[in-house]
Amino acid sequence: MIGLKLYMLQRLSAMVMAPLVLGHIAVMIYAIQGGLSAAEILGRTKGSIVWALFYGTFALAVSIHAAIGVRVILAETILKNRHALDGLTLAIGAGLAFMGLSAVYAVTAS
Amino acid sequence: MKIHPHRQHPLWLAFFLHRVSGIALALFLPAHFYVLALALTDPSQLDGFLAWTSNPLVKIAEYGLVFLLAVHMFGGLRLLALEFLPWSARQKSLAAASLALAFFLSTTFFLQAV
Amino acid sequence: MSSAKTMLLVSVWRGTGTQGRYEAFEVPQEDNQTILDVVSWVQQNLDATLSYRFACRVGMCGSCAMMVNGKPRWTCRTHVGKVAENGRIDVAPLRNLPVIKDLATDMDPFFDKWVGAEGHFHPTRTRADPIEAINPESPSRKLADEGIECINCAVCFAACDTVTANSDYLGPAALNRAWTLLNDEKDGDRTGVLDAVSGSGGCHNCHSLGSCAAYCPNELSPITAIAGLKRETARSFFRKGR
């Protein structure tokens, strides 16, 4: 239930995320050494444009990617209605993007 | 659970792993975003949550999440290579290599975490 | 010189449409026996009402494919010795196609999708024109050659789980045909083919799970052909923004 446009969005968002995921895993391995504390994390991220751009891009790309991925799985299992699929894809993408950008704002805004 | 006979080959398993890890990550994302947003709305609750993550059981769950992320990324790279690069019959070994790398990365994470 | 012949335990799907069940038969085992031989033996000796389809018996016509022990096979070229499990064989109609009766499926959806993928030749010359010379060594001709031995048996169509899950999906055989046309220098409708494989049931729905290539009796690789279509449509997407 996807055509060329959704396919391209899915693959382009994946290409954007590949290096970001590697970076994210590296950050996690580094950050959790000696336990996690909010002060320690926020001390590094607050006011940092680099972190805001890194995770802002990541949040937008993952919202697109996850929305299309969930759409395909729903289409192949329980939801055959085209309009319902389109609406749900948009809702999931917008919802994830809003939550993701809110989270990025929360940890990077100074 | 019995795998249907026509699905008993390596690429089907690679597809299955990619789909299952994708669903799991999509379900995890809203929770992840919600907890991070606490930094602004309720910092004390965030610290309480982070303290909870030092629980060994949570550590194992985190290992699982990192594994899912790695498996989905390397599986995805395999797909991108298959679709966008001229490709030969080496795909099966690539699938196996991606799994091995995923294990390597998530285990590294686990060792650092404990 | 054996006194009693070893018997095969054969379960055959019987029924019309969506109704049916397996029926057990015992068939004497022979040397060099194919699954089609077994089915024919049942029809000729045990139950003349058994319906199934075959024509050439030598792997050319693509009409005898069935599910054998859960896997799609061309039955005329599948030896019993290779697929029997402890002397047991399950034979069922192909997956992903409506059953007419017993082992005979309605192949219309399969061929409709062949048409839907614009899988017919689009000529650019008339019979009055001289024949266009094609270099057999050219890269595009070699790509086309890799996919043209398809016999339309629908084994890949039956093996594909994306076909099962998405009724719009054109499927591996039709998309493989589209790929050979795209690489055929004589074909005159490249854009038409690319459009046909870019719709909601097009090549982009393929999840590369590879059952098509794993079971193709002629060892073609539809998964590779479909990856080629994805690449070409992506290229046209960047060139023309659609």
From TrEMBL, chain A:
GO terms for molecular function: metal ion binding. Membrane-anchoring subunit of succinate dehydrogenase (SDH). The chain crosses the membrane at residues 12-32, 52-75, 87-107. InterPro entries: SQR/QFR_C/D, SuccDH_FuR_B_TM-su. It comes from Fulvimarina manganoxydans. The keyword Membrane applies. One of its GO terms (cellular component) is membrane. Pfam families: Sdh_cyt (PF01127). Keywords: Heme, Iron, Membrane, Metal-binding, Transmembrane, Transmembrane helix. Its cofactor is heme. This is Fumarate reductase subunit C. It is found in: Membrane.
From TrEMBL, chain B:
The heme is bound between the two transmembrane subunits. Keywords: Heme, Iron, Membrane, Metal-binding, Transmembrane, Transmembrane helix. The chain crosses the membrane at residues 12-40, 60-81, 93-113. Its cofactor is heme. It comes from the Bacteria. Part of an enzyme complex containing four subunits: a flavoprotein, an iron-sulfur protein, plus two membrane-anchoring proteins, SdhC and SdhD. The complex can form homotrimers. This is Succinate dehydrogenase cytochrome b556 subunit. It comes from Fulvimarina manganoxydans.
From TrEMBL, chain C:
Its cofactor is [4Fe-4S] cluster; [2Fe-2S] cluster; [3Fe-4S] cluster. Pfam families: Fer2_3, Fer4_17. It comes from the Bacteria. PROSITE patterns: 2FE2S_FER_1 (PS00197), 2FE2S_FER_2 (PS51085). Part of an enzyme complex containing four subunits: a flavoprotein, an iron-sulfur, cytochrome b-556, and a hydrophobic anchor protein. Keywords: 4Fe-4S, Iron, Iron-sulfur, Metal-binding, Oxidoreductase. This is Succinate dehydrogenase iron-sulfur subunit. GO terms for molecular function: 2 iron, 2 sulfur cluster binding; 4 iron, 4 sulfur cluster binding; electron transfer activity; metal ion binding; succinate dehydrogenase (quinone) activity. Residues 8-95 form the 2Fe-2S ferredoxin-type domain. NCBIfam families: dhsB (TIGR00384). Pathway: Carbohydrate metabolism; tricarboxylic acid cycle; fumarate from succinate (bacterial route): step 1/1. Belongs to the succinate dehydrogenase/fumarate reductase iron-sulfur protein family. Signal peptide: none annotated. The keyword Ribosomal protein does not apply. InterPro entries: 2Fe-2S_ferredoxin-like_sf (IPR036010), 2Fe-2S_ferredoxin-type (IPR001041), 2Fe2S_fd_BS (IPR006058), Beta-grasp_dom_sf (IPR012675), Helical_ferredxn (IPR009051), SDH/FRD_Iron-Sulfur (IPR050573), Succ_DH/fum_Rdtase_Fe-S (IPR004489), Succ_DH/fum_Rdtase_N (IPR025192). The lineage of its organism: Bacteria, Pseudomonadati, Pseudomonadota, Alphaproteobacteria, Hyphomicrobiales. One of its GO terms (biological process) is tricarboxylic acid cycle. Its EC number is 1.3.5.1.
